[in-house]
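Dear H.,

Thanks for agreeing to be a second pair of eyes. The structure we're designing against is below in token form, covering all 177 positions.
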């Protein structure tokens, strides 16, 4: 078990990096990169010598999933700028929020290191991957991935969206292991 002081130090280190990312928007490093650094640093400060490499790899997988969610959200926004539809926007917003919340839960568990049961960590990882799978399926069903215009709907003068190149859910699942 990790001493309480080490956990508190790790949490403070991670929070410090995340605050720095938010307070300096001109940083050349993306906030999600700083989050991954915070996770890795927190693990090292907490003294997780055996578990450190495993959790660091998991943190990289979580960072990858965060990047994929960023691309999915940007693609959906470009599609909806050209083809606005309130109910479609609401459904996509809900799916994006659910995927972000699942990823945030997974990231939070990663920062806890050895304090988290390995089974719980795996459940959080699978929940994040499943949430991405649902978002991916929704984007495909709505035509966002192929940039296919909906049948009979509003269309604005916004630029035509390009097809969205997202990794399939099975690839994301493999890369987050």
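And this is the sequence the design step returned. I haven't edited it by hand at all.
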């Amino acid at each position: 078990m990790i001493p309480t002081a080490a956990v508190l130090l790790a949490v403070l280190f991670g929070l410090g990096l995340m605050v720095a990312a938010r307070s300096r928007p001109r940083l050349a490093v993306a906030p999600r990169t700083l989050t991954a650094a915070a996770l890795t640093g927190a693990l090292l400060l907490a003294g997780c010598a055996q578990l450190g490499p495993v959790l660091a790899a998991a943190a990289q997988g979580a960072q990858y999933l965060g990047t994929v969610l960023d691309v999915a959200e940007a693609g959906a926004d470009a599609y909806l700028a050209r083809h606005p539809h309130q109910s479609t926007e609401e459904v996509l917003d809900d799916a994006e929020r659910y995927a972000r919340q699942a990823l945030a839960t997974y990231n939070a568990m990663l920062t806890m290191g050895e304090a988290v049961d390995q089974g719980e960590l795996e459940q959080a990882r699978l929940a994040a991957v499943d949430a991405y799978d649902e978002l991916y399926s929704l984007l495909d069903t709505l035509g966002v991935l192929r940039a296919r215009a909906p049948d009979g709907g509003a269309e604005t003068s916004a630029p035509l969206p390009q097809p969205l190149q997202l990794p399939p859910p099975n690839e994301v699942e493999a890369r987050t292991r």
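Two observations from my side: Confidence is low (pLDDT under 50) at residues 24-29. The chain is about 70% helix and 0% strand.

Warmly,
E.
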